[in-house]
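Exercise: predict the structure of this protein bound to iron/sulfur cluster.
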Amino acid sequence: MLGVYVHLPFCSYLCPYCDFAKWPLRATSAKRYLEALHAEMETYEPAAAATMYLGGGTPNAYDVHAIGALLARLRTRFCGAKEVSIEINPELVREGDFEAYRAAGVTRLSIGVQSFEAAEIRTLGRKHAAAQVEDVVAQARRMEFESVSLDLIFAVPGQTPASWRRSLDAAIALRPDHISAYGLTVEPGTPYAAWQAREPEAFFDDTREAELYEIAITELGAAGYQQYEISNFARSGHRCAHNLNYWANGEYLGLGVGAVSYRNGIRRANTRSLEAYLTAAADRRPIPAEAERLEGRKRAGEAIMLALRTAQGVGLREFKERYGIDVIADYAPIVTQFARTGLLERVGDSVRLTQRGRFLANDVCGAFVTFE
Ligand code: SF4
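Solution:
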């Protein structure tokens, strides 16, 4: 299965915690960028795709005609996608947008909510009001999208267990099909990093953040959302196929500035320089990129890292068949160490993270990637 990801990097405003490849929306660059995307997609042989995902940035900073034209063009190159997702910011949704998305074949909406609390929304630099989210979800329901997902963030400075519960409850009350709950990470070079350097006590330590994570797992579980990945919860039949393919170490093609692809054992990351991307595409030159072949231990380590993110973990027999690696024997020192410290567990034919392990997933997964 091939997943196609398209990065649309423009935003109407820039959030102070964000380190994605993104730029303020400017009409000229936004137009040049679509032309560049078209040029880039022409460099690939036509192929069947199981999923498409328009992410950003803020994809709905583009108007619906541009999105419709982009999807139509993508389909001429990569046909057959059953799941077509778009990320949207709620305050940018205009009358008639969802009708146009449905007509263009979008099946899944991922709505960047982050919080329903006015103070936290302000702290995050976001611009919507909670009531707008309700309205957008109601519109999405009327248009019968197959899945509607809400993104939330916890460990926001100023957040409390009570305010986090209120956001979770507000999200659950809208009955979305899917909820993603991410712990805030302070990325180097962002305004949040400067804030944290000035005022470290404003930010959550691991213990307080773990408390919020546990609240999410409990509340969402009680509301019928199954945790199928560290940060992702879904009602039955609404897991995101596009992301499941990443975690299954499947093949994907990333189009756009900073986009990453993984095909034929090679991981390739496009330049994160917007100008370099636009110029190369306009000149019909290859997009500057860094490529790396993943093989042997490295490939297996990455595959374990991805599989551990999921609720079912690493299927041992299947892993041996696919990669020729016996996870228990070949990674014995770290499997034993993490099992002893209560971060990993063996369940039937699988090894998976415990609930505590999910919170410390980066440490556990990182150990498998770097294990020699
Ligand atoms: S979080 Fe989203 S909307 Fe905010 S700057 Fe980053 S990509 Fe843009």
